Amino acid sequence: MVICRKIFILAILFFAFLSVKSYSEVVNKVDVQGNERISLETIIIFGDIEIGKNYEKSDISLLIKKLYETSFFSNISVELINNKLTIVVKENPIVNSIIFIGEKAKKYTERISELLFVREKTSFVSGNIKGDVNLIKSFYRSLGYYFVKIDAEIQKLEKNRVNIVYTVDKGEKAKISKIYFLGDKKIRDKKLRDIIISEEARFWKFISKNVYLNQERLILDKRLLINYYRNKGYYEVELTSSNVEYSEGEGFVLTYSINAGTRYKFKKIFVDVSIFSIFLVGFFCGYISFFSAVTFFVSWSTAGFGKGKIRSAAIDFDEKKIKKPRKIMLSLMKFLIILRWFTFSNYVIKIYV
């Protein structure tokens, strides 16, 4: 029984081998039928057809795949008989024009045309129209038209050409009814609403465009929130999510989830430069406290700093004068500019928090 099964399998493999070999032929001539716009030479180039090459079944399948990838044809059949490769094609129509009904703004129609897969003077592929409709919807939603409706109609013309007509019903712009901030945010909601660009819709804000949902504005809001928190010393802040939900009867609700993390403060700034110059400039500019200056001069006179043996110092900033990290950095920049002008020397900075 086992021997019979082995013989049967070998017989199948043998006949399969013969069938593949029998299909294998050398291409001596190429004939194309059904083409009107696409020339024989173009089909040979895109199909990567080689005269004199031995073609098998897998080569024919690859040839058909390459021709379909050009989007020039809606149907392709290939036959290899008596060393003659016959290709029968049906060409896709050419898009004569794309028409937008319901959109009068030229700047919008031009931007939409740049986004589309199927464009004017290119091959019309019906399968790409659905994707283009979704692209147009995404474009209008980015402008705040979340209830937009798009209908596509194909108008057939002579000489295998078509027009694509998009009917646009934008609907009303989506307004933001509420803005919430959730999580360990550390900052009051009122202050955070003042930071972002988006605003809650109120009857006195009828002129403002910021009450409408806008994807680009939401991205800017995230960046503004992160920068604000970092300027406050929350350098590990995480804006975990931002959600937009529609509530029937209320409108759209915008929610930001924030994890502020630990707040960091500057304690010391280590500058590798002449110590006397640091404290002289820092004290007279008001960036170093009187106590720090007195401590320095005592240490400087007793430890031999004045001889130039040591060229570094740790500056304790006056926390009463400079409390916020952003103000510290601005003060440090001013301090170093004056220091550079005063000493004409380079310096290396190390900041301790």
Count of DSSP helices?
10
Query: Given the C-alpha coordinates, what overall shape results?
Result: elongated
CATH architecture of the largest domain: Roll
How many beta strands in the DSSP annotation?
Answer: 14
Number of domains: 4
Strand order of the largest sheet: 2-5-4
**CATH top level assignment of the largest domain:** Alpha Beta
Beta-strand share of residues: 25-35%
Mean pLDDT: 75
Amino-to-carboxy terminus distance: 83 Å
Largest sheet: 3 strands, mixed
Order of helices and strands: HEEHEHEEEHHEEEHHEEEHHEHE
Could you say which structural class the secondary elements and strand pairing correspond to? Answer: alpha/beta
Question: Are there runs of 5+ residues with pLDDT below 50, and where?
Answer: 12-22, 293-323, 341-352
- Helix % is 25-40%
CATH topology of the largest domain: Ubiquitin-like (UB roll)
